[in-house]
Amino acid sequence: MVTDGVVLGVVLAGGLSRRMGGGDKTLRLLAGRSLLDRVVERFAPQCGAGLILNANGDPARFTRFPGEIIADDVPDHAGPLAGILAALDYAAHTPSGIGHVASVTGDAPFLPLDLVARLAGAARDAPIAMASSNGREHFTVALWPVAVRAALRDYLVVRGERRVGGFLREQGAVAVEWGTDPLDPFWNINTPDDLGRAESYLANA
Fold first, then answer.
1. What are the phi and psi torsion angles at 129 (to 5°)?
2. Under DSSP, is residue 11 helix (H, G, I), strand (E, B) or coil?
3. What pTM was estimated for this model as a whole?
4. What CA–CA distance (Å, rounded) separates 118 from 129?
5. Are 64 and 27 in contact (CB under 8 A)?
6. Is the peptide bond before 182 cis (omega within 30 degrees of 0)?
7. Tens digits of per-residue pLDDT, 80-106?
């Protein structure tokens, strides 16, 4: 059983943001506020054990983030699974008995406000629950039991695998579908053009 009080949220921001021109995509401004601030506003109230941020490099650049900054411990930019593993390891070593970690990306400023609740409901019947919209599964928006971290470390470090979907399939993950009206709540702002379209959406909302 998953309860809000034992869910830790992790915002994944460890990527290289090549399509945005490099740098920290999560710190790009959308209508005067950073993408990260917008993600935190929607995600933090859903995570009873608080939020952490997965990011590599100098953590001082995230001074506004309300939780701890954790880096990957798997080398060579191993992808989002490395950030998820870091979050699971962090949760396992806290004294408060955190049982699950909810992961989101730092470039999705329109996350649904019922994300964790609906994933937790689906996780009663499956080890991992992930979000889906418009027929597309969002592998990095998911609820992970801390108990899966040994299997994930084996997948990443021993087997050298990087595919998030591959691990989720091995673990029997279930998808939870969200509607896309008036917009897809898992829209990732990946390019300057995406940022402009998001600005237009907010201006007309």
1. -120, 135
2. strand
3. 0.93
4. 9
5. no
6. yes
7. 999 999 999 999 999 888 999 999 999
